[in-house]
Amino acid sequence: MNAQPTASGLPLDLEPELTAKGYSQFHQIGAGGMGTIVFARKESLDREVAIKVIAQHAAGDDEEVGRFMSEMRTVAALDHPAIVPIYDGDVTPGGVPYFVMKFLRGPSLEAHINRRIMEGSKFTVEQTVRLLTPIAQALDYLAQLPSPVIHRDIKPANIIADDAEEPGDVMLADFGIAINEDTTRMTREGLRVGTDAYMAPELYPTQLAQSPPQPTAASDRYSLALIVLEMLTLVNLRRTTSPQQWAHSRVIPDLTPDNLAPSDGPLAPSLNSFFATALHPEPQKRFASSTEMLDALATVAGTAELAPPQENAPAPHDANVPDSADTPPAIAPSNNVASPAPDARDESPRWSLRRNHIILAAVLAGVLMVLSVVGGLALRGAGWDAEEDVLAREFPLIFPENPGRAPWRNLDCYSAEPEAGQRARIICESEDLTLVGADFGTEDDRDTIVPGTVEELTSEACTVTSAEIPGQPGTWGVYPTGVSARFAFVIAGANAKEDRLSLPLC
């Protein structure tokens, strides 16, 4: 296959083909693991479009090509006002698949949430209902198709909203990992697919499971409920718990008036009852449909008129969830127990690696566990505490002034409980990268956790040491020297070895 791109981001043999069809003004507007998105305009129809082309690295992978083509066929067969329509699609003479879809000018819901975090302005229940009702109706439409479609990646980044303040177009995008009866077998056995921060608990395999867990409409609804919680509190629930707890012993915290927009404070008890049903660990005990869930949320605030039922739509039936006489009412009794657009690479100065190793008479200790979040079950406030503020001020090019989006790689940073020997700990995450910073108070205390053999990294401004964490492939420690020798960093992810070289530590 010839997927080599032109300056516009299109493959060499695709741009002439699209030009012959009347498209022009090509320029790349996005890229991800699955493909590249290119803007274009069709003058004859006065229409702006987005062209999705399979990623160059995936063009030679039969399974990836099959998944891409499946997305094209799946979405092309859908007809719903809140689902991005596909206008055209084909395979280039060189064998590169692509499809043409509606261009969505509005930012993602993720961008709206990030802006609200910076402003410290939570969504109200009424605003949340207004924004998410079209998405709920789209999910119910998918669930009631003759061959139901499960999206499997419901998250704020895949919801496009023209305006977060006033009614406008809200659409569900990115069906790259959606499945129906015809495409389920495309997923490798045992492979968990989706975004960890928005996945339902039943999608995590257990030792007792006889077969890999299968996503259902109920798991998509759970993801939507997590988005509701995030909009109301501006806190991503996944960021407040450890990976082990998230997978197997998830706890939903009680909301208090402080967690909500000021006007919604009195609604905290009713919202806790709502989330007890919406985020129930047993799929069959959640709301029976997404619109029922949004209706229940509207009822909490007395705004049911904002969530009209979908016209001419029969009540959806989730074939993958057994019928139950225990289907919960709109608001169930409280039950608090339940079973991180690709960012641009920064231009930070890079570190160079010296060949010599430095041997430190130190032992491996507790910092190797810094990637777990301990005790962080309560929704957190808006600022760093005094000890965290010292850490954040020491490294202003890495950490934000307050919890939220970081200047480095646009990571999501939040407080974490200090572990043994630490004064403060901050965790910053994205979907493919985790960075943990810790303050040990003194260099001697910090050195107790540094591995015995480290590499020396140098830049024009300073020198640090680094080592891969034993027993944790893809996880690297970075240890400042000199006046910053009391601090330590751990970075984990598929490209952690490379990413550590651009950490702006000095």
TrEMBL record:
Its recorded name reads Serine/threonine protein kinase
Q: Which Gene3D superfamilies does this UniProt record tie to the protein?
A: Phosphorylase Kinase, domain 1 (3.30.200.20), Transferase(Phosphotransferase) domain 1 (1.10.510.10)
Q: Please verify whether the record's keywords include Ribosomal protein.
A: no
Binding residues annotated for ATP, in chain numbering: 52
Any one Pfam family here would be Pkinase
Q: Mind telling me which residue stretches traverse the membrane in this protein?
A: 358-379
Which PROSITE patterns does the record associate with it?
PROTEIN_KINASE_ATP, PROTEIN_KINASE_DOM
Q: Which residues form the signal peptide?
A: none
List, for all copies, the residue spans of the domain called Protein kinase: 23-298
Q: Which UniProt keywords apply?
A: ATP-binding, Kinase, Membrane, Nucleotide-binding, Serine/threonine-protein kinase, Transferase, Transmembrane, Transmembrane helix
Organism per entry = Corynebacterium singulare
Keyword Ribosomal protein in the entry? The reply is no
Report the GO molecular function annotations: protein serine/threonine kinase activity
Specify where the region named Disordered lies, as residue ranges.
307-349
Q: Which InterPro entries match?
A: Kinase-like_dom_sf, Prot_kinase_dom, Protein_kinase_ATP_BS
